[in-house]
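call fold(seq) -> tokens
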Amino acid sequence: MRQIPVAAGIFEGQALPYDGSIDADVCIVGSGAGGAVAAAVLQAAGYQVVVLEEGGYYTSPRFRIREVEAYQNLYQGAGGRTTTNGHVAVLQGRAVGGTTVINYTTSFRTPDRVLDRWQREFDVDGIERAGLDPLFDQIEERLNIHQVSVESMNRNNRLLYEGARAINLDVAPTYRNVAGCAETGACGLGCPVDAKQSMLLTYLPDAIRSGAMVVSRCRVERLTMSGGAVRAAECTLLDSPGRAPTGRRLHVRARRFVLAAGAIGSPAILIRSGAPDPASRIGLRTFLHPVVAVAGRYPEPVHGYYGAPQSVACDHFYDRGPDRVGFIIECGPVYPAGVAGLLPGIGRQHVSQMQTLANIALFASVLGDGLIDNDNGGKAGVDRDGFPELNYPLTSPIIEALTESANVMGQIHVAAGASQVEYFTDPLTVIPRDLFAANRVPTVKPG
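ret:
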């Protein structure tokens, strides 16, 4: 095993022709929102940092607004990761920059309700609003986070804004981390013009300029421990597509380790490593913010595949009381392959639905799980081969919130002028607007 000197920059693991070893002050596992910021801060403080990332290194010339490429290259499981029961899709990034490379740029500060619960229920110190706000200010400046204007919204978002206002719901433009947005609509496929201020363009380059090293296509199999501390990371290097090991391994020693591989990946590493868990808490209380989408078909084209995917949010139902799960309503991008996967049916029925894709507007509710008593979320673990998995039960409060939010979205669609509302059940549930006008809308449970 050869010693590899630490050098500032991004080293693509698939290119290493031999087994290697790296020594550093700090090893960070994961290059997303958590790992990248930690790397920039620690490297600037004088520590020699190495960041390990399972995903590949992709930059704007390789973001070609092709769903088939983006899902395979940038998403965990090629976009097919789900909970163990298959009920919830988990759209999670797998690239240098993590999920920030493929998110929709919507940027919220942690709500007071969440901070209050963390302090009250779990005795978490140091997260008072007065202390956090200056840190939020710094990050928002670095990521160029600012509120968008109503005039800049695409028609998909404008329909949500106007429909919610028409029925007196709280709704407002969102804050986005962009600079020079070209409104390609490709946020979820990797920004082809480098407008999205993801970790790929901000905190990781900051860390590298200070001397940090980032290793891509590097899967951390396990952490070795002794004397109550982590001593090294044992890694497998992957091929260029990230589908198979190259046969080469990497051994990383460090004085300190930061595990920032996400709420599903981090517990998996700890479990594979045999980490001490005297309270049996590793992987528990993993929350997803489950999402359900509802489509509206409009007489005029919407073209929801162009423009910023999310530029408005309705938080009217975020706090529904102590015993009910709240939700925020946003828009989802109308990507052809993504919508095709949501629409049930086969053959001519499916083709006829897709032929009018331009007239579809897509709303999505994001549930605020983890904020009511006895909501324990899911449990992250590993499958028989040691790969991450997540068991997430759909409890009665979750199902009630999904159902209620779906019906609220139907009301907003009609208020915005939709000719019919479509719920992604199987078979597809289609409700004409005249039933809404007659107040004869059946309660629809999402499929």
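The longest strand covers residues 245-259.
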